[in-house]
Write a structure and sequence with these properties.
Strand order of the largest sheet: 1-6-5-2-7
Oligomer: single chain
Structural class: alpha+beta
CATH architecture of the largest domain: 2-Layer Sandwich
Number of strands: 12
CATH topology of the largest domain: 60s Ribosomal Protein L30, Chain: A
CATH class of the largest domain: Alpha Beta
Helix content: 25-40%
Shape: globular
């Protein structure tokens, strides 16, 4: 199963179809499943989707499918409802035939804790393939901004370059982000980095430059152009999109 999940469908039994009334009013749902093929004896595991070389941790600190009670809790995007009882979804991270225990609406004000913090992901990011890392950045950007537009795609390319240069998780508390004037790029970078004025990690230049700084080094991106199509943003060289200046 890819880290970001797949497009899939859930078939709700006819007896429970009435429970779906109003579900189409939600863009996202919380999906609770029973991972019926998981090993329930496992107490420690490795985030093997990223790399088998990562340290072992207790399963209560991981999202490993193997655990004493193999429940899967995930947020999925609702694309539509077909025939009154078939949900068409994105970002589903369970295999075919997995029993669905419950479906709940995702509510931003309650379920999104933007200020939440976690472990330093630097080692995990270094072992992650560039394709998987980009997909993760895209998801973080879209979750905050709401869509993958050319501006959000530029933010992903900037974040990729900043990570490569700084060799650090961009959510690290020592990384300060300065956003420029483009609202789409700004939105996406906030979603990717978790920077905000309240944690003293977010500043604004009001210009066409974007800065990532941590102790001893700053990376300054001077925006050159924003192509009109998302595919074009991801296809062209970084030098076409922005100039990069490193200050130590």
């Amino acid at each position: 199963m890819p880290v970001q999940g797949v497009t899939a469908e859930i078939e709700v039994f006819p007896d429970y179809a009435g429970a779906l009334s109003g579900v189409e009013e939600n863009s996202h749902l919380i999906l609770i499943c029973w991972l019926h093929e998981a090993d329930r004896t496992v107490l420690e595991a490795v985030a093997r989707k990223v790399s088998p070389d990562l340290p072992r941790k207790g399963v209560f600190s991981l999202r490993s499918p193997e655990r004493p009670n193999p429940l899967s809790v995930s947020v999925v995007r609702l694309r539509g409802v077909r025939e009154g009882r078939i949900l068409e979804l994105e970002n589903v991270d369970v295999i075919d035939g997995t029993p669905v225990i419950d479906i709940k609406p995702y509510q931003t004000g309650w379920d999104c804790v933007f200020s939440a913090t976690g472990h330093d992901r630097t080692e995990k990011i270094e072992k992650m393939g560039p394709g998987d890392y980009r997909k993760g950045l895209i998801r973080e950007a879209v979750n905050y901004h709401g869509e993958l537009c050319p501006g959000a795609a530029i933010a992903v390319r900037i974040a990729e370059a900043a990570t490569r240069i700084l060799r650090r998780d961009l959510r690290h508390p020592q990384v300060v982000v300065t956003i420029g004037a483009d609202p789409c790029i700004a939105d996406a970078l906030i979603g990717i980095t978790g920077a905000r004025p309240g944690n003293h990690r977010l500043e604004c230049s009001g210009e066409s430059r974007y800065i990532f700084a941590c102790p001893g080094v700053a990376v300054i991106f001077h925006l050159r152009t924003i192509p009109g199509m998302v595919d074009a943003v991801f296809a062209c060289d970084e030098a076409v999109l922005f100039d990069c200046e490193i200050r130590r």
